[in-house]
Design a protein that fits this description.
It contains 13 helices and no strands. By secondary structure, it is an all-alpha fold. Helix 2 runs antiparallel to helix 10 and helix 4 crosses helix 10.
């Protein structure tokens, strides 16, 4: 209780816990569908696009979130369409977008402000980089993401497991794939301040694959993944506070430890 009281006495830790828990829930819910649909690398691609957009926003003195979110949403739609209308398949399209966006971001930063502390925070994440404006935007966007996922849960479940059957029953598969891409893009941008562009995809993938070691139903997998994600977020932020660790790596390492434990439990059960 003394540790909790000490941590929460700092305003930056209050912001980190509030945004982090909401971000962990959104990432876990979307991560299960993305992993099952083999779209998990989209998160990595969009995080690089997000870094490029944030670097350009910093160079041009734009409000980072307001500029980055639309850019990443457009990139998500383009990435999905590119894999369906061209000969460039999903993994190759993701690699092209990753490297191009990263090159644009680093070039824009080098020609203006240089690779300063703000740019490094975008790459590796920092709880100190969260501003009150970022917190307000994150809370609003996270609530919208969670509500949309709950409202369209049945449709997302259908397109996750069998797109052909979902289409046969009248579900607009392309629309719900776009919805998943939209929610993922917003989650990626919200998490980049805390997790960093290089690590945010781990927050989406790890809880899902950990939960899948022991759970074999969609709903139970989603719930367990959400619990794992929140637990690792809280543990990682606490470790970051106690030992002055960067928040993003601490959270990902907690997720890695949980995955190893769940993988071992699955083997024992088999």
């Amino acid at each position: 209780m003394e540790l909790i009281s000490t941590m929460l006495s700092y305003s930056f830790m209050q912001r980190a816990f509030l945004v982090g828990i909401l971000l962990a829930l959104c990432s876990a819910l979307l991560g299960v569908s993305l992993v099952l649909k083999r779209y998990s690398m989209i998160g990595d691609g969009l995080s690089h696009v997000g870094f490029g957009a944030l670097a350009v926003a910093a160079a041009c003195h734009f409000f980072p979130m307001a500029f980055t979110i639309p850019v990443v949403i457009v990139a998500a739609f383009f990435l999905l369409r590119l894999s369906t209308i061209s000969d460039i398949k999903g993994d190759a399209a993701t690699a092209i977008i990753c490297s191009s966006a990263l090159a644009i971001g680093i070039t824009a930063a080098s020609m203006t402000t240089g690779i300063n502390t703000d740019i490094q925070n975008f790459l590796f994440g920092s709880i100190l980089a969260l501003t009150p404006a970022d917190v307000r935007l994150s809370i609003i966007a996270s609530i919208i993401i969670l509500l949309l996922f709950i409202v369209f849960y049945n449709k997302i479940f259908a397109v996750t497991f069998d797109e052909i059957f979902a289409a046969a029953t009248g579900t607009n598969v392309q629309l719900y794939n776009m919805l998943l891409a939209l929610l993922t893009a917003i989650t990626i941008v919200l998490g980049m301040r805390m997790m960093g562009a290089l690590l945010i995809s781990g927050l989406i993938v790890f809880p899902a694959i950990s939960a899948m070691r022991l759970c074999h139903q969609f709903l139970s997998t989603v719930l367990v993944a959400a619990g794992i994600s929140v637990l690792c977020m809280v543990t990682g932020l606490t470790a970051s506070f106690l030992w002055a660790l960067p928040s993003g790596p601490a959270i990902v390492l907690c997720n890695l430890a949980v995955f190893i434990i769940f993988y071992g439990l699955a083997k024992v059960r088999q």
